[in-house]
Specification:
Elements lengths: L6 E8 L9 E10 H14 L7 E4 L9 E10 L7 H4 L5 E3 L8 H9 L3
Parallel strand pairs: 1-5
Antiparallel strand pairs: 1-2, 2-4, 3-4
Length: 116
């Protein structure tokens, strides 16, 4: 287990052939305390608005001592780049992860365990 596993990882896909309202699909993995996850998620959505429908998947408590949780959020946006990463999560542990994709709850648990 690392000393401080808290982090935000992200990736996006661009849909060029789609005639949908939103061109970019975003994936964010947030590993943090439950209250902080909500605040980070609000900042993500604010930076990338307007956004389409939001899908969320959350794990149970991963580290009981620190009550850390993991959440995967997926949504569409017309914003193709993050305007300010610092306004979302000012940390070197905010990074792009090209392996991040939609997943089910078991896959999310396994993905989260890589960072604990």
């Amino acid at each position: 287990m690392t000393d401080n596993p808290r982090q935000v990882r992200y990736d996006s896909r661009t849909h060029t052939a789609d005639q949908s309202e939103f061109r970019h699909e975003w994936y964010f993995f947030i590993l943090n305390a439950s209250q902080e996850i909500g605040r980070i998620q609000e900042r993500i959505l604010r930076e990338l608005e307007p956004c389409g429908e939001l899908t969320e998947l959350e794990t149970g408590i991963l580290v009981p001592k620190n009550s850390l949780r993991a959440r995967l959020i997926i949504f569409q946006s017309n914003t193709g780049e993050i305007p300010s990463k610092r306004r979302i999560y000012d940390s070197p542990k905010f990074c792009r992860d090209r392996d991040l994709r939609p997943m089910n709850d078991v896959q999310l648990d396994n993905y989260a365990m890589k960072f604990i």
